[in-house]
Design goal:
- 2 copies of one chain form a homodimer.
- Chain A is of the alpha/beta class and 338 residues long.
- Chain A folds into 2 domains: 3-127 and 306-336, Alpha-Beta Complex (Quinone Oxidoreductase, Chain A, domain 1), CATH 3.90.180; 131-282, NAD(P)-binding Rossmann-like Domain (Rossmann fold).
- Helix content of chain A is 25%, strand content 26%.
- The first copy, chain A, has 9 helices and 15 strands.
- The radius of gyration of chain A is 20 Å and the shape is globular.
- The mean pLDDT of chain A is 95.
- The A-B interface holds A 52, 58-60, 230, 234, 243, 249-252, 255, 260-267, 269-280, 283 and B 52, 58-60, 230, 234, 243, 249-252, 255, 260-267, 269-280, 283.
- Strand 13 of chain A pairs antiparallel with strand 13 of chain B, so a sheet runs across the interface.
Chain lengths: 338, 338
């Protein structure tokens, strides 16, 4: 069996995550038991949720155990199969983790999914046609429930989730306004993704200033907001929210290192009769088929061209992950494994 | 026609509301036109929402106009009628305002409602069997949607809304835990209203301390919370919230004078996949008949004995109102008008 390089969580972060939290190890892949398949990973997905798993504290998910391979979504190719469900050469999506190969019990429901739409580049099954895309779909359709003509805003708009929120909102006839970091990302959001406007939050020192920019970009106020960031961005959005506005809370990356990110004016939830709701897409598996079908069609038809940042080689994963947490990626952050 | 004493809003508050914001005036009640009735008020309701109306700023409702009679719910007796719908002697609930008499267009939908359940004291139609009761009913049943065996908390638990929340939650088989100010109110909440526990927030200097008390009173965590206060109370509750907990935001009296009341840990909305939703009961008229029927039965059968603080005479209304904002009332705050 082939040698397998793996990245494990070596130490939990105190404050900011850093490269020293991770360790590269080498092992042999074990021989397959009946029902198992061996997958060679092509791409590893890097996602903000992983930062939460690195902490010990109570969160919605089990913490990543120390000394074990970091959790993560992967696409790859079956190289050996002892399951009737898969044959060598199948392209598959799974949760293979930060390593070059994974051994998967093919009978476990949802563990491995075959993909074969030749119009969709394999890596997009980790982004727009994968977990980030379904995350966008759920928050938009099940929490924000936007109506045509209404205004939807989204933070981290050039990212894997945010870009899908905007494209889906436009497909529903909404005005889509992004918030992103830097002029280049904002240009991409408007010119390539088709948002109506995008605000560079780096040009704004406080929520009041950002809120004035939102007022300009959202002349009819904000009816729905998809939150990936928190802090100043959420404060600014609430100041522009309309009556009955909905906020889907998907991430609060601004607080992932333990920074305080208070919500300054919670009374706006009352005066605007808002609904603010947090969610995790893995708890809503029932929407995945419908969401993936719509997202696959948007990408397959070329109407949605997601952008990717690809780091080369497993050993590049930690720095690419840390860069993503600091907003250095542009679009979906991936690692090419082989 | 009789002389009518009225209290008008004379000046808007800057910071805390004060007696000088109000002015007592005297006028003649006008002669009735066709379709109108003249009502002599027996009781005036004082409610926290009135504080919001005194401000000029954008809120969910029109500000109370300066120089006009303060808005407010009233119960009273028809003394003269030029409407076929009412006859002298009818007992009626309406929005008569801070005055001794009101002239009402009886044809206007919802303007005046006849009440005649002899088991229900007239004043309770302004409390448990009126707007505050329906407010409790809506927030509990339509937002919190509690299941038997789950834990529901409510702040301002001895008040008109809070007491009904607890009684309704108990009727649904929930554990009901109140938060109130002072040992006497807490005793009433447990011993007379039948809550399972009540915490005196005055014994706690910060959200951490209050949260530890909530942990003791809610050993299985908090599944639903009805918020009337905001600030430290809401922070403490969020720290004890279970996955999928719901918060109905009905009031944030802690911030009514303009104090900052930031929500310290909004990330808990995400990690607990919570829903936090604000509402105003007047926007949900469709639930009133069902809610009033249930509340009327609870009160009429003696299973719910709401407590009242009654100030004597219209001229006592401003001080009674200001006292209520400071938590000096005990139960529903009323003014006996005649």
């Amino acid at each position: 069996m082939p040698t397998n390089r793996q990245i494990v969580l070596d130490k939990r972060p105190t404050g900011e995550a850093e490269a020293g939290n991770f360790r590269l190890v080498t092992s042999e892949t074990p021989a397959l038991s009946e029902g198992q398949v061996l997958v060679r990973h092509r791409f590893l997905s890097l996602d903000p949720y992983m930062r939460g798993r690195m902490n010990e504290g109570k969160s919605y998910a089990q913490p990543q155990p120390l000394g074990e391979v970091m959790i993560g979504g992967t696409v790859g190719e079956v190289v050996e199969s002892r399951s009737p469900k898969f044959t060598a050469g199948d392209q598959v999506v799974g949760m293979g983790g930060w390593q070059e190969f994974s051994v998967v019990d093919a009978g476990q429901p949802g563990a491995l999914r075959k993909v074969d739409d030749s119009r969709v580049p394999l890596s997009h099954y980790l982004g727009a046609v994968g977990m980030p895309g379904v995350t966008a779909w759920y928050g938009l359709n099940r929490i924000i429930e936007p109506q045509a003509g209404r205004t939807v805003t989204v933070s981290a708009a050039s990212g894997a989730v945010g870009s899908a929120v905007g494209v889906l909102a436009k497909a529903r006839g909404c005005r889509a306004v992004g918030i992103a970091g830097g002029a280049q990302k904002c240009r991409y959001v408007v010119e390539e993704l088709g948002f109506d406007a995008c605000i560079d939050y780096r040009e704004h020192g406080d929520a009041g200033s950002l809120s004035r920019a939102l007022k300009q970009a959202c002349p009819d106020g904000i009816d729905g907001h998809f939150e990936n960031v928190g802090g100043m961005v959420l404060d600014a959005v609430l100041l522009r929210a309309n009556a009955f506005a909905r906020v889907a809370v998907c991430g609060m990356i601004a607080g992932y290192d333990g920074q305080p990110i208070p919500l300054t004016y919670p009374q706006l939830i009352l005066t605007n009769r808002m609904r603010v709701e947090g969610f995790i897409v893995s708890e809503h598996m029932e929407v995945w088929p419908q969401a993936l079908a719509e997202l696959g069609e948007l990408v397959g038809s070329g109407r949605f061209r997601p952008r990717e940042s690809v780091a080369e080689g497993l050993e590049a994963a930690p720095e690419a992950f840390l860069g993503m947490l600091r907003g250095r990626n542009f679009g979906k952050q991936l690692v090419r494994i082989s």
